[in-house]
Amino acid sequence: MTGRIDIGMQGEELAAAYLSAWGWSIAARRWRDGTPHGLKTDIDIVALSPDGVYHFVEVKTRTAAPGPDRRPEAAVTPAKAQRMIRAAERYMAAGKLDGEIAIDLIAVVLDGGSETPVIRYYADVAR
């Protein structure tokens, strides 16, 4: 049986490949604030789009199951979105980076009966 962490890592790999196919550069994976008393939120993917925007991407992966509460998108709460904004600001400050940021979501659904995962991209899920 595949564990939850393995499913999450598979979703992150698929999401990174999806963004790379758009011509985006993956700047960081699984970034976590390393300062003392840092934020407890990690950023799954930090990507730089060709137009120079830094995208902080939360990846939510689920195996196929019926019901609206099993949609990966349902796992991003307003509180999680706010933590992502703060983490993005810390990432930019830590790297002394300047530029536009976007908080995005990629939902990945893995279906054991299909070889093709479903990937849905949502831009600017938080401000």
TrEMBL record:
Pfam families the record matches: UPF0102
Domain of life (superkingdom): Bacteria
GO molecular function, one term: nucleic acid binding
Family label: Belongs to the UPF0102 family.
Database matches in PANTHER family: UPF0102 PROTEIN YRAN
Protein name: UPF0102 protein NCTC11190_00252
Organism this protein belongs to: Rikenella microfusus
